[in-house]
Design brief:
globular; alpha+beta; 348 residues; Molybdopterin biosynthesis moea protein, domain 2; 5-stranded antiparallel β-sheet; two-stranded antiparallel ribbon; Hypothetical protein af1432
Length: 348
């Protein structure tokens, strides 16, 4: 089935090789395209590709693209959840832990997900029945690892940063669980107690691992460049570079998750909020790297607009991340050309 590149969606399967105008081989027959492939074809000015028929077109339009998770990936995710749960149990009792234990818990996670491209769908596909805090710790570890890789860090350093994300909330093991699970608004005293998890985490990691960078991430992941964070109101030059990475991952994971006191937010809203926070609160370069690598994952997803229409995102706009090209029935709508029309939600 020959279709225009702008009609491709993540999950389409090519049935012939694709070459650009000078004969460079781009994609092989049998490739199941993802968001990055579609962007690459656009960059090479490819107009049409041959794909395997999708079947019932109407049904395809309504069904979301399923994100396949292998048994190995599912196992490594649950293994990481179990690992962080044990760490919380150990440290709640005042025990220390060895670096080997942390490595064995989180390294298989990085190993088995290191080539993942659609991180948005991945995080939505990985769900655990365990406590939010444990799942959040694993998500932040994964996201911190991805951000480090997107920043061209070495594999060794990316895993170190991912480990910092994995351990960042460990100090919550010392916080009253009734406060952590409270569904209503916290009192000032209760919030002051929760803020201490950063100090507790610093002390736990320092005493267990003697790794200053990992300990500082636990201490600083709620610090903000403008000095509005906690616990020490540090400003941008005083915050460790790893803490800046984990802070972005932490905000994203928290906002896309259901918590006892807050429902998860729409995914595009979360990225817009991160973009807003990059003007004063979060490291702007790190935040832009994160958004730039997450936005292409929305290609092929259904979007609802504030004028009541719905369509499929077919191409991102590099000059305005939040104004992509959308296909509505047989029409292509460039939101960057429409001042008053914007996406209100994305169906995943």
């Amino acid at each position: 089935m020959l279709i225009h590149v702008l009609q491709l969606i993540a999950g389409d399967k090519l049935i012939s090789d694709t070459y650009n105008a000078v004969g460079l081989h781009l994609l092989s027959s049998g490739t199941v395209v993802d968001a990055n492939d579609i962007l690459m074809l656009n960059r090479h000015n490819i107009e049409y590709v041959d794909i395997m028929p999708r079947g019932n077109a109407d049904q395809e339009e309504d069904e979301p693209v399923r994100h396949p998770i292998s048994a190995v990936q599912a196992h490594s995710f649950q293994h990481a959840i179990n690992g962080v749960k044990q760490l919380f149990q150990y440290t709640a009792l005042g025990e220390t832990f060895a670096d080997d234990f942390v490595e064995s818990a989180c390294n298989p996670l990085f190993q088995n997900f290191q080539d993942e491209k659609d991180v948005v769908s991945l995080l939505l596909s990985l769900n655990s029945q365990d406590d939010y805090t444990y799942q959040h710790s694993v998500q932040v570890g994964m996201l911190s690892y991805y951000i480090a890789k997107w920043m061209d860090k070495s594999e060794k350093e990316a895993r170190h940063i991912g480990k910092a994300g994995y351990l960042h909330d460990l100090g919550k093991s010392k916080v009253d669980q009734h406060i952590l699970q409270k569904p209503g608004k916290l009192t000032n005293d209760e919030f002051d107690e929760i803020k201490k998890h950063t100090i507790y985490g610093y002390e736990i990691i320092r005493d267990s691992l003697q790794d200053n960078a990992l300990a500082l991430v636990a201490l600083q992941h709620h610090e903000r460049w403008d000095g509005s964070g906690y616990p020490l109101r540090r400003t941008k030059t005083e915050i460790h570079s790893y803490s800046n990475i984990v802070a972005v991952a932490d905000v994203y994971s928290a906002m896309i998750s259901d918590r006892v006191y807050q429902q998860k937010r729409d995914l595009l809203f979360v990225l817009k909020e991160l973009h807003r926070m990059s003007f004063g609160q979060l490291d702007p370069k790190i935040t832009q790297v994160f958004i730039r690598n997450m936005i292409p994952n929305f290609i092929g997803k259904k979007a609802s607009l504030n004028d009541g229409r719905t369509g499929t995102i077919v191409m991102t706009n590099p000059s305005d991340f939040f104004k992509p090209l959308i296909k509505i029935k047989n029409e292509f709508v460039d939101l960057s050309q429409l001042n008053n029309v914007e996406i209100t939600s994305i169906a995943m």
